[in-house]
Amino acid sequence: MAVGTLTTVPVPAPRVIDRRVAGGAMLLAPLAALPLAVAAGLVVAAGHAVRLPSLATAALALGAVALGSRGLHLDGLADTADGLGASYDRAKALDVMRRGDSGPTGVATLVLVLLVQVGALTTAAGPVTAAAGVLIGRCTLSLACARGVPSARPEGLGATVAGSVPRTAALAVGVAAAGLAALLPGLPWWRGPLSVVLAYAVTGALLWRCTKRLGGVTGDVLGAGVEVAVAAALLALA
Prior knowledge:
Elements: H1 2-6, H2 19-27, H3 29-32, H4 34-49, H5 54-68, H6 72-86, H7 90-98, H8 104-123, H9 127-144, H10 157-161, H11 167-181, H12 191-214, H13 219-237
């Protein structure tokens, strides 16, 4: 479920999708996203090898990640921004998010977040840094699906995964991510953990806002959380 949902890697469909499977998939999200992280790192390494401009290299690396995830999280970011900007009425906001089109708020948010990601990766454009930003963003999915975070709708991906991850397990993912990030080469030991803390902080702020406005999370909110977390992590690593 984790690989099939978060990447374009062809895998068999899960035989059963229940709360236990959904929670496990969200916990395994960073491992499932390893092919995306490797792709980003390889693009950055290739860009350096042929001396591409750093801006182009960063854009190509993030484009590879978007291609490898079907643009799923970018779509969620745009839809979430449209919903939050549409109305203070919960039902109307959720209806806007359900549509397939993107309004000016969603497009503007998408452009601005991508500019932050590309700009940060331009400065911190090492292959390991690029891969780390991708993985840290996916680590926050367990936070978004921790027990106590409700679903905004009774159906959909959000309803399947919302509250499916035990809080202790979500905390363990964050602690493990911070510990491994401290080992990133070429950076002060504290820079990696700082990137994890900042990523979790912005995702937590988004979850708080969406829970207050929408009544909980949706699949779009999960995608939005990943994208803002990647931006925050790359900023810290830069």
